[in-house]
From TrEMBL:
GO molecular function: oxidoreductase activity
Family, as annotated: Belongs to the short-chain dehydrogenases/reductases (SDR) family.
InterPro entries, per database record: NAD(P)-bd_dom_sf, Sc_DH/Rdtase_CS, SDR_fam, SDR_oxidoreductase
Domain of life: Bacteria
Record keywords, A-Z: Oxidoreductase
Name of the molecule in the record: Oxidoreductase
Length: 276
């Protein structure tokens, strides 16, 4: 087995966070997992003597620094932070209030950044560490009806990539992990859905909303296999800055990059016409 590490994973109550915690514990890592309820903490700690639970909502920004300092003092140095906590907002942009966008960015972006800012002083002092940010194929491609979600994941992809360049000299790696569709609670209990209000969007969006509800729980991706892929990235001497998970993500992101390249070329003369 690779050397034992201490992982701090946000959102270990279900889905990827739970699967990664289980797989990490099975190969001898220690896991500090955040949850949002005392009962979920007890349940998580019952998994293993090496499982420590912490109750933390990642939008409780003022609590994050102290929570991380406490983990460093009581459990030990955090080798790996996995920013996994997040959820999907679904709704046509024109129909969805700004408050929905703020909440989406508070959890998926600001919460993740607050966690990174809390662990970085410790990792920088040690000149080692690894941060994994769970983004999404929605951080590369877009679909109608999840504009705020895609916006949040594009933001986290960009922040991850830039941070990776800032902290590489200190021996700290940053990996943005972008899964395709996996069998978690994402499209079920965790998703927030803005109610419909503008009938002009019915033809476009009603089939999309219905299809996502019907597909929930039957997606292609296995979270356990995703967890094993993340552990491989954690064990790597030179972890990637970007890691796609799932053949759906691979195909869709490749198509997007190719279409983007084609459009850039089609407009190249206009693009370069502004120099001088
Ligand atoms: P999930 O089963 O719904 O798990 C989400 C986890 O995040 C839960 O533990 C949840 O805690 C936690 N969480 C949500 N809001 C939180 C907050 N404000 N503070 C702290 N914890 C919070 O779904 P999942 O698919 O595993 O989601 C994990 C990550 O993967 C998310 O960032 C998601 O966007 C991303 N992702 C998922 C897919 C997919 O197809 N499943 C694809 C691409 C990316 P509670 O139990 O308390 O709600």
């Amino acid at each position: 087995m690779a050397s034992s590490k201490t992982l701090l994973i946000t959102g270990v109550s279900s889905g990827f966070g739970r699967a990664l915690a289980r797989e990490a514990l099975a190969v001898g890592h220690k896991v500090v997992g955040t949850v949002r309820r005392a009962e979920a903490k007890r349940e998580f700690e019952s998994l293993s003597a090496d499982a420590w639970g912490r109750v933390l909502d990642v939008t409780d920004f003022d609590a994050i620094d102290d929570a991380v300092a406490d983990i460093e003092a009581s459990v030990g140095p955090i080798d790996v932070l996995v920013n996994n906590a997040g959820y999907g907002h679904e709704g046509i942009m024109e129909e969805s209030p700004l408050s929905d966008m703020r909440q989406q960015f508070d959890v998926n972006v600001f919460g993740a950044v607050a966690m990174m800012k809390a662990v970085l002083p410790f990792m920088r002092a040690r000149r080692r560490g690894h941060i994994l940010n769970i983004t999404s194929m929605g951080g590369y491609i877009t679909m109608p009806g999840i504009a705020y979600y895609c916006g949040s994941k594009f933001a986290l992809e960009g922040i991850s990539e830039a941070l990776g360049k800032e902290v590489k000299p200190f021996g700290i790696a940053v990996t943005a992990v972008a899964p395709g569709s996996f069998r978690t609670d994402w499209a079920g209990r965790s998703m927030t859905r803005t109610p419909r209000s503008i009938s002009d969007y019915d033809d476009l969006f009603n089939p999309i909303r219905q299809a996502r509800e019907e597909k929930s729980g039957k997606q292609l991706g296995d979270p356990r296999k995703a967890a094993q892929a993340m552990l491989a990235a954690i064990a790597a001497d030179r972890p990637p800055a970007h890691l796609l998970l799932g053949s759906d993500a691979l195909g869709l992101v490749r198509d997007k990059l190719s279409a983007l390249s084609t459009e850039i070329s089609a407009w190249e003369a206009t693009t370069v016409s502004t120099d001088g």
